[in-house]
Sequence to fold (527 residues):
Amino acid sequence: MGSARMVAMVATGLLALSACSTPTATSTAAGADTLVVATAGEPDTLNPVLNYGVDGGSLIFDGLVARDARNQLVPALARELPTVSADGRTVTAKLRDGVVFHDGSPLTAQDVVFTYRAVLDPKVDSTLRSDLDMLASVTAPDPSTVIFTLRYAYAPFLQRLALGIVPAKALAGQDVNKAAFNRRPVGTGPYRVTSWTPGDRLVLAANERYWGGRPANSGVVVAFVPDDNVRAQRTRAGEFDVAELAPKLVSGFDGRAGYQVRRVPTADYRGVMLPMGGPVTGDPAVRTALNAAVDRSAMVAGVLGGAGEPAFGPIPPTSEFAEPSIVGTPAADPAAATAALDAAGWKPGPDGVRVRDGRQAAFSLMYPATDSLRKELALAVTADARKVGIRITPEGLTWDAITPRLGTDALVMGFGTPYDSDFVSFKLFTSTFAGQGFFNPGSYRSPVVDQALRDARANAEPAARRAAYATFQKQLATDLPWVFLTYLQHTYVVRDGVSGVTPRVEPHEHDVANSLWWNIHTWTRTS
Fold:
């Protein structure tokens, strides 16, 4: 059976099921050129105000700006890149003419104002509010002009304008947290939502009136398959045009007829978050020893199948702000690890586990159970730690089980962005966010880091920002609130005959939005 016919049957079948389970759904996305993609993660909402696709590539919405294949800012709903005043505190955007939402209503400056004010509204459960702490007001002096007034100069503010714009009339006067819009949104993007079946799929149809030109295909089906092995099995069965797979699983498609493997560079790192208040994880000697004991080169070769590189900090080597001195030894250094433990009074016990003052050097290491990559990293860290007398108990759990233990137990975490370094690092490592869920869950506090990150975000001059980020990275390497392990390449399987695929450096968040299919509206199937 030809690949195009197979995918069309899969897409049509999915859409038929969607129509049965959701009576109001339509099958307008069905067609031989409908593309089916598979990812592990499923969003909680499709509302940008509530953190959906905030950095662009959402398929459903557009921001004032977007990012091109090099992650450079380009105008989107703004007709040109917004202008910034000399003092950095006033940003002016002029809207593109003739843009309409999926329901045909025109985009106006009031929609932009509503979107940003909704994020700032304390009654709205938006995790983005802290990202816009610098925003004092947003106003529309006329239907095509938006003015952002900042409390303080914030160097990367234009990058915050990739946030998708929602129509004011669809949400005004409603409880945004519970609005039906969150599951059946209306945007200006290249695709409109026809159905969302939780735990299964999101069905999108081409937006015939898209301001950037009608998409080159008639629609997209996003299949949600959280289990890595199941996703690989379904990919082998021919269900998907594109699927993200773990590096070791994707290697099984190298050389396989009918498929191409894409290994995409990222700023996405994995590491072990160590709670600073723990009797073992909070001990500087234990953190130092663990940092020296892990064999990053073996993790890259084995766990990642070569699809990555060792990590020693949260700013990737490709960033202009990476500090070159923050480079450790990719291979394990057990001598340095044992020396740190010996000096701190952690002595080997009868079972090989080190002990100090009657307490063993032992702790639990959590990871999400369905994530095969984090599981293998957890097991690798466990084995390396055992060699120097630290006993780690790996635990695969649901996110619901992980969340209440964030402040007390170590966790294999993932973060990272190729955009501005402020975006992740400020929330993850300043004391302002200590203990706030997945932001700085280990309650790391350092006045040096706090000041450096404040300086980096406030100064637009590149040399000053580089100096501030150098201070930040050096202090982090001294305190070791995390043991950074690897930077990943995101690995995908693409069916032959799909054209238009354009990889770009990806962030950690890359499920429906910001994945390999960030520009899927330009893709076609040629066979």
Summary: The domain at 48-177 is CATH 3.90.76.10 (Dipeptide-binding Protein; domain 1).
